[in-house]
Design brief:
Low-confidence stretches: none
Strand content: under 5%
Mean pLDDT: 94
Radius of gyration: 13 Å
Helix content: over 70%
Shape: elongated
Structural class: mainly alpha
Length: 62
């Protein structure tokens, strides 16, 4: 149960990063002026990882 909670919190964090991708690129990655392509890639990767993690947790962690 603890593993499921940790994974779901990680999913929520990834979705927040997806929502605030430009802020993430500026503050965490320290890119002063992120391009639209970079922001799109950050959103795409975080959304895909979050979706896969969520599906795996729901299917395999009991």
């Amino acid at each position: 149960m603890i593993v499921k909670i940790i994974c779901l919190v990680l999913c929520a964090l990834l979705l927040f990063i997806c929502y605030r991708a430009k802020f993430f690129a500026e503050k965490v990655l320290r890119i002063s002026e992120p391009s639209e392509a970079l922001v799109f890639r950050i959103k795409l990767v975080t959304l895909a990882v979050s979706a896969v993690l969520f599906i795996c947790v729901m299917l395999f962690v009991k």
